[in-house]
Specification:
Number of domains of chain B: 3
Order of helices and strands of chain A: HHHHHHHHHHHHHHHHHHH
Strand order of the largest sheet of chain B: 9-6-5-17-30
Number of strands of chain B: 30
CATH topology of the largest domain in chain B: FAD/NAD(P)-binding domain
CATH class of the largest domain in chain B: Alpha Beta
Distance between the termini of chain B: 74 Å
Helix content of chain A: 55-70%
Radius of gyration of chain B: 30 Å
Strand content of chain B: 15-25%
Number of helices of chain B: 15
Distance between the termini of chain A: 34 Å
Number of helices of chain A: 19
Shape of chain B: globular
Number of domains of chain A: 2
Number of strands of chain A: 0
Radius of gyration of chain A: 23 Å
Largest sheet of chain A: none
Largest interface: A-B, 24 and 29 residues
Oligomer: heterodimer
């Protein structure tokens, strides 16, 4: 069977941050060092090979990059400085842009100026929109923050955030379907019966909420940090999407809602500062390389957290007008962050990672049941077993 | 066409001149206007005071400007040209250890500034390796400023060519070179740091790819060195200082006392039998022990015992305790109070053959060397499998034993120890790895295959796995050797193993077989780490003493990679063997013979031209041995 190669693939991946894959001499140290690498999902060497050979299609249909959590052990041990960890990160960015049907993701990842411009344009539109709405559709009085006649009333915000949530979820779902198509109908994929899809469905929420595979990495700090960030974020999202009225009401503090709010605010600020500090100091292998999109993500996250806290403080301190303005400034960060990051950039991994684990399990289960890829013989048994007798 | 090119070039030069400024305002002036550029050495020199040299140069006639340049600063012709034009200079004196290096940049700068590009004079402190001193630097700069040629070697006349040769290092390279020169009836001083010649090759059991017995090749040569009247062997000796130049080097050698008279000792071993102290044997790479008075191995040359002062009770107690060896020696050969001596040698040529060390396998933590007793380095395995090694050549695993003296448990090799059922060999440990040594050590692939053969030969029941990245079978007969080992039933895994771990007392080696993309974990009883080669310790200091450069990896740099792989930038000093770069035994021997040819060429031509072969001076060398 002829194999189609794209000799420029490795150069194209450079723009996604996979800069050193060319140095790899295929010793396999990385795959053997990795805590997640297990037959048949052996990586990162295999992905490095795909890159070097320009095997675009197998790379696109590969689940391996999503099974890597980038603890950096492979990069630390790499004898060539080929940075397998960062290469996997770069491949994940590339995969995100491949799954994205709009092409926006590719544009944002490959051009720092486009990403910056997109964020600024969306931020300005958001600011103008909410200010206009507040003046003419909402309360109309900039010095009223809460209660009846609030400048930005919670019910109106809810209409907006639920609409945005549905649009973003739809975009991401389409990308997920494309991911399913690429990976579950790829070269080595086996057909999976519907019953298996159902019986393994529980894997999705489990891995979404716990990221328990991440814990297998030798270095536990990134997992802890990531879990705190994700749980804080989910808590905050729930508060905003469901309990905004209680959150916004004042001036007294509603402790039922606010305890969660304060905890998640601490979590968000703490983890984003931790990550920014790590990336500046480059103190660990997984922090050594930073793509522009990493800085944009962390910058927006910190910006949103700090402005969110500030508008809350200003409101409780009795400066409703300042609080309202900060609220709009806050939204000018929230909307671009969610609108650009969730379907098109870094945050899409919230869906891709659990899906990849789910798909990988399905493939293995289907293979165990005897399914083989169409037109291909079954995989040979591992060498170890052949030689074991 | 060529004319047009020339025109273009002229116009380019003209344009550059215009950019930099009006050119020939000074050029017409008859008087030289000199700028002295004094380059500081990369390391501070105790004997050279740059400030006082600069001060002195500033007061020389015609010197307009003096600038001291730090070793690390960048030289940009365009910037210099502006400086030259500003100070209205027309001549440049470059004063440095090796100023020739900067000459092209300054020539270009002069041309850019509209001056005559050839007016760059050199004051070279480092030439001929005489070493830089403040006084000498001042003289050299004065000569350059006055445009007086300096006599290349002020100390010695070239007619006094010394026909003796110094060989540093007594491994196979040093032995070969010494024998070649001695065979043509010329004096050789062979200086060896350890207690015997033979070097690394003496440790080996077999050589690849012929599987010849290494000792059978080497020991006759060692004996020939010991018996050759033209070779004077200085063991336990180190080069302290080298001065002079090609044809007349003066070398100071520190000869540590063996404390045993080599002419009286018959190597009966009585002394060692009564010696109360035990130390780990350097020759056996620490897998066996020796006494405080010892002979490195039975075939050592010179074949005498020696005392290790770092362990000897008599030495450590300043002569108050022990002394058993001296009392028991029937020949009265032991002189415990013997002192180290400084020997002055005068030689015409120097051959450097200092060989290699193996990198510390502890550094690659994931293979568990030092943690798991049966993880061995390549040289340890060479000693284990060697018939003269601690187990008589039997490949066994270490067993736990209680040390009677220290009451601690330790892992030792016993001839009747358990035999390993599976042995893994890991290639490229600390080689081809930017975290350790980035270069390929060249011999490891082949010696690993040799190990696999020895394991399969001595333990036909045992499995043998090789974890390799690329199989570098580069020499004559090597590919065939590789094929042969494959056919012998050695299992080759293409992939560097990532780790060795122990579970329930069983070692496991883990790696990816990259050819079929599967991870494999194999239970093994013994792991051999094919560590690479690195310059032997003390190479940096020796390079400094000899004033010869080293390359980025620490090997001595040859004069020219292709055409002068033996020469060094300093005339009369040659390199041979692994100290110039990793190589196998045949290449080492060939290079050693070539180095000897270099030395002999100069000796023969000096004799043919002048007939002034110097008789050896009285004080040269230590008292002759039998």
């Amino acid at each position: 069977m002829a194999v189609r190669t794209n000799p420029e693939l490795i150069d194209q991946l450079q723009q996604f941050g996979a800069k050193d894959a060319i140095k790899c001499y295929q010793c396999g140290n990385c795959s053997a060092a990795c805590a997640h690498s297990e037959d048949p999902y052996v990586f990162p060497r295999k992905s490095m090979r795909f890159l070097q050979m320009g095997l675009e299609k197998p790379l696109r249909s590969s689940l391996d990059p999503w099974l890597c959590y980038y603890c950096g052990k492979c990069s630390e041990q790499c004898p060539r400085g080929a940075e397998p960890g960062e290469t996997m990160m770069g491949v994940r960015r590339w995969l995100t842009s491949e799954y994205d049907f709009t092409g926006i993701s590719r544009l944002l990842y490959r051009s720092w100026s486009s990403e910056l411009a997109a964020v600024i344009v969306v931020a300005l539109l958001t600011g103008a929109g909410f200010f206009g709405f507040g003046l003419f559709g909402g309360g109309g009085n900039l010095s009223v923050y809460d209660g009846p006649g609030a400048f930005l009333p919670p019910h109106a915000i809810h209409v907006f955030d639920w609409t945005m949530g549905i649009i973003l979820a739809s975009l991401l779902s389409i990308n997920c379907i494309r991911m399913w198509h690429f990976t579950m109908h790829g070269e080595h994929a086996v057909p999976v019966p519907l019953s298996l899809y159902v019986s393994y469905l529980l894997l999705l929420p489990v891995h979404f909420f716990t990221q328990k595979r991440f814990r297998h990495c030798e270095n536990k700090t990134p997992w802890t940090n990531h879990l705190i960030l994700m749980l804080s974020y989910l808590t905050m999202l729930t508060l905003i999407m469901v309990f905004l009225k209680q959150m916004q009401a004042g001036p007294q503090v509603n402790w039922y809602a606010h305890t969660f709010g304060y905890l998640s605010a601490i979590g968000l600020v703490g983890t984003s500062i931790f990550a920014i500090r790590g990336r500046i100091k480059k103190d660990a292998a997984y922090h050594r390389h930073s793509h522009e999109s990493d800085w944009m993500f962390l910058g927006l996250l910190l910006y949103v957290s700090v402005t969110g806290i500030l508008q809350h403080v200003l409101h409780r301190a009795g400066f409703p007008m300042a609080a309202n303005i900060t609220y709009i400034v806050h939204l000018m960060g929230v909307v671009p962050m969610l609108a650009l990051e969730v379907p098109f950039s870094k945050w899409s991994h919230l869906a891709y990672r659990p899906l990849a684990i789910y798909f990988a399990q399905l493939q293995q289960a289907a293979q165990a049941e005897g399914a083989t890829p169409l037109g291909r013989p079954a995989r040979p048994q591992p060498v170890a077993q052949e030689q074991g007798d | 066409m060529p004319e047009r090119v020339n025109q273009n070039r002229e116009s380019v030069v003209k344009n550059e001149r215009e950019q930099i400024g009006r050119g020939s305002d000074v050029q017409a002036a008859a008087l030289p206007r000199i700028g002295v550029f004094l380059f500081e050495g990369s390391a501070p020199s105790p004997s050279l005071d740059y400030a006082s040299v600069a001060e002195y140069a500033a007061h020389l006639p015609d010197v307009i400007a003096v600038r001291t340049v730090a070793a690390s600063s960048a030289i940009t012709p365009e910037v210099l040209a502006v400086e030259i034009r500003k100070a209205k200079l027309n001549t440049i004196v470059l004063a440095a250890d090796h100023p020739g290096f900067h000459k092209p940049a300054f020539s270009r700068a002069l041309t850019l500034a509209g001056r005559d590009g050839s007016q760059v004079r050199l004051a070279s402190f480092g030439e001929r390796g005489d070493g830089a001193s403040t006084k000498r630097a001042k003289v050299l700069i004065t000569c350059a400023v006055q445009n007086v040629p300096v006599k290349p070697s002020p100390k010695h006349d070239v007619t006094e060519f010394n026909t003796a040769t110094l060989v540093i290092g007594g491994g196979i390279a040093g032995i070969q070179a010494a024998l070649e020169i001695a065979a043509s009836n010329h004096k050789v001083y062979l200086v060896e740091r350890t207690g015997t010649i033979g070097g690394r090759m003496a440790m080996f059991d077999k050589t690849f790819p012929t599987l010849d017995c290494a000792a059978c090749i080497l020991t006759p040569k060692m004996v020939a060195v010991g018996q050759n009247p033209n070779i004077e062997l200085l063991v336990l000796s180190e080069v302290q200082e080298v001065s002079g130049s090609f044809g007349q080097f003066n070398v100071k050698v520190l000869k540590h006392a063996t404390r045993v008279d080599s002419s009286a000792c018959v190597a009966c071993g009585d002394c060692a039998r009564y010696c109360p102290v035990t130390a780990s044997s350097e020759f056996d790479m620490g897998i066996a022990t020796r006494k405080g008075i010892f002979i490195p191995f039975p075939q050592a040359v010179p074949n005498t015992y020696m005392i290790d002062p770092t362990y000897c009770t008599w030495v450590l107690s300043d002569g108050k305790k022990c002394g058993a060896c001296a009392k028991k020696c029937s020949k009265g050969a032991v002189h415990l109070d013997a002192k180290d001596e400084l020997v002055d040698l005068e030689v015409g040529n120097i051959i450097v053959a200092t060989g290699y060390d193996t990198p510390d396998a502890h550094r690659v933590e994931r293979y568990g060397y030092g943690t798991y007793p049966n993880v061995l380095t390549s040289l340890e395995f060479e000693r284990l499998t060697n018939a003269s090694g601690p187990t008589g050549g039997k490949i066994v695993m270490k067993t736990k034993k209680v040390n009677k003296k220290t009451k601690t448990e330790e892992w030792v090799f016993e001839p009747d120890g358990p035999k390993p059922k599976a042995v893994a060999i890991v290639h490229c440990v600390g080689s081809r790895d930017q975290n350790y040594n980035p270069y390929c050590s060249r011999v490891c692939c082949m010696y690993s295959l040799k190990f696999a053969h020895l394991v399969r030969e001595k333990l036909p029941e045992a499995k043998c796995y090789e974890y390799y990245i690329d199989m570098r079978a580069f020499g004559k007969g090597y590919e065939e050797f590789h094929e042969r080992i494959r056919e012998e039933g050695v299992l080759l895994v293409r992939g560097r193993s990532a780790s060795v771990a122990e579970r329930d007392g069983q070692l496991y080696i883990h790696g990816e077989n990259t050819l079929d993309e599967h991870l494999i974990t194999l239970p093994v009883d013994m792991v051999l780490l094919s560590v690479g080669l690195q310059p032997s310790h003390g190479s940096a200091e020796l390079a400094e003493k000899l004033c010869i450069p080293r390359d980025g990896d620490g090997w001595f740099r040859e004069l020219d990679y292709n055409s002068e792989p033996n020469g060094t930038p300093r005339e009369g000093i040659y390199v041979a063997g692994v100290c110039q770069g990793p190589k196998d035994i045949p290449d080492t021997v060939a290079q050693a013979s070539a180095a000897a040819a270099h030395a002999l060429r100069s000796i023969v031509s000096s004799e043919a031209g002048k007939k002034v072969a110097q008789p050896l001076t009285e004080n040269a060398g230590s008292p002759a041995r039998a």
